[in-house]
Design goal:
By secondary structure, the chain is of the alpha+beta class. The protein is built from 3 helices and 2 strands; from the N terminus they run ββααα. The chain has a domain of about 50 residues. Helix content is about 50%, strand content about 20%. Helix 1 packs across helix 3.
Amino acid sequence: MKRAPERPVKHSLTLRGHRTSVSLETEFWQAFRDIAAARDLTINALAIEIDESRQTDIGLASAIRVFVLNHFRNQP
């Protein structure tokens, strides 16, 4: 039987001294942490990179999800 998706989980991030909350599903949080670790970055540092490259009309949580998706799509 297929498992129902979990509700997003809220975590606080610090971007350039400013605290913000981001809600992501558990699987996205884990993938985000894995990517940061593989790049030898903290999740805050990776979130800053994503935040600086996103369009202003796209929320940070959405930008992180797309980043994670693109990361795994571009894997050999």
